[in-house]
Amino acid sequence: MNSPRLSSPPGARLRHNPIHSLSLRYLLIVPILLAIVTAVVLFQHSDTNIYMLYSQCHARSRIPWLSHIPLLGTPSCFLVSFFGEAAASLRSSAILSVIFSFLAGLLTVSTVEAARICNAPSILIAYPTGLWLIFDLIGGAFVWELIIIPAFFHRSREIITSRRQDLPTSDVPSADPTFGEAMRHLTKTSETIAIPFAVASGFVAPSILMLAHTSPVTVLIWLFFPLWTTFLRQSARKLTTLSLVKLNESWQETLHLESSTLGMVRVYLLPILCSVASHIFLLWTLSQPDDRKEMTRSTLKFITIDAFFVGLTVLYWILVEAGWRVAAMMVFTSVVLGPGAGVCLGWVYREATHNPAGASGSGVTVVAVGAGPGRREEGGEPGEGTPLLR
Asked: Where is this region: Disordered (predicted)?
């Protein structure tokens, strides 16, 4: 494999984003402030309906088969009742569908990042199941503000610091998570099938089932979507790798997702379509009478506020790592096509401008574009596997 050339092409311009110039302690000020504001706003919008809902579960008067379970019965009953009441009308189902499409986009993005070689050293990024469970069952926006976003910032700063100290050399393995030319690749090409299958079966299907037929059972199934998504992704990855590698060994190799149009379509198409559909559904329900009852309004208000602050946190994440143009593009797309499409399309645009190495002294970032590393013959013409410099 040829070693990357350490020289910038004519007209190359280095992007200086906050992730390159600010230390981690300064970058975390905004997420911490957002967490404080989230707590204040949620407290201000709390009402007796939420407390009464918990009291009914504690008195075993709601969902008896669930609330009578020792220790876990009351909180489980409250969670199921909370989301069940939030989806109890046509208008609220439309609002939830928009929020769920946003979560589908975020789930896709976080799973893609978990599959990238460069994020393997970070347990919080590479294994997101636990954090998604905490987000879904307990923490809400606080998980994104205080754990997930700081984990990504910390990993980015690690890469930036390391690459500033020592530029890549020819003896660095291609799949090295910090210096390798394949650092932004997915670990296997089969992830482009496993990820959308897992998101579709583990999250989108339970979400549609819950909104179409709201019951304690469907809500309970939906609440554990992080487990279903992870299990289905691992199963699909193993099955597709074992079956497709017999036809083509490239399914077992790494892949730079953003250089593969077909791969991006497979990964991002579903959350984008869900976002557009939910956006249209919401606009249609706005022309219909509002059928929400008081309890539905109270619970849905909490979910909407929480989703809003998650969106602000993700927007700040994009702004710090990719700049204001990508953030503006994500906001515009979210308004037109829905937040799920905004996250996915914004993330694709982010990868086109993202500089994971930072503002090094030479102003050089090695980015592997195309198929798996090492496909260029020594002395051959540049091809899809040729490392580009920007």
From this structure: 371-390
